[in-house]
UniProtKB/TrEMBL annotation:
Highest taxon in the source lineage: Bacteria
InterPro entries reported in the protein's UniProt record: CsbD, UPF0337_stress_rsp, YjbJ_sf
Name of the molecule in the record: CsbD-like domain-containing protein
One Pfam family named in its UniProt record: CsbD
Length: 63
């Protein structure tokens, strides 16, 4: 997995990408706190039904 700094630095862009792909996500679902990546992934997995691996690809993939 690439840097967690990517997640921190591009979070607003990633939130938009996730909302576009998964319309059922709310702002509350997408609250990110530094160091809480596992909790975020768990919450997203529960709401979207995606695997954590697929979500990691979306969140941590290189551009």
């Amino acid at each position: 997995m690439p840097s967690k700094l990517k997640l921190k630095g591009e979070w607003n862009e990633l939130k938009g990408k996730l909302k576009a792909k998964y319309g059922e996500l709310t702002d509350d679902d997408l609250v990110y706190a530094e160091g809480q990546e596992d909790q975020l992934l768990g919450k997203l997995q529960k709401r979207t039904g995606e695997t954590q691996e697929n979500l990691k690809k979306i969140l941590f993939s290189e551009k």
